[in-house]
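Subgroup meeting minutes
Present: P.N., E.W., G.H.
Scribe: E.W.

1. P.N. recapped why we're keeping a running log of single-chain structure predictions: easier to compare across weeks, and new members can see raw inputs and outputs side by side.
2. G.H. added today's entry (134 aa).
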Amino acid sequence: MPKFLKPGKVVICTSGRYAGKKAVIIQNTDKKTKERGYGHSLVAGVKKYPKRVIRGMSKRKIAKRSAVGTFLRVVNHKHFLPTRYNMDLSKELRGKVNVSDAAKKAEARKLVKKVFQARYNAGANRWFFQKLRF
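Output recorded in log:
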């Protein structure tokens, strides 16, 4: 069977704190490890979607409403739903994301936030930054 859970695949989290939020697979592990006895993936997702902006708002308010909140989490394969979409994040995040301890995870989350914010500001992958209505 071909492997389809590859880095760059967009998924929707189905359980936990970020249920219903979109995320992208950064790293995938199909095999069991000592600490996790199941297949799992490191995902980076949108915790807080940008709000609607109108012309009459001040620059400060526009900047605040266009902020993208992010999360970084290791998730069991059973707890997300893969979609048919892909996002190419290999250049920006390849080998730079590490969640082994709290300090490295905080740095990685800041990097993910910077990458997602740049994507949103550029208008790339618009569908990814819109709240999922269901």
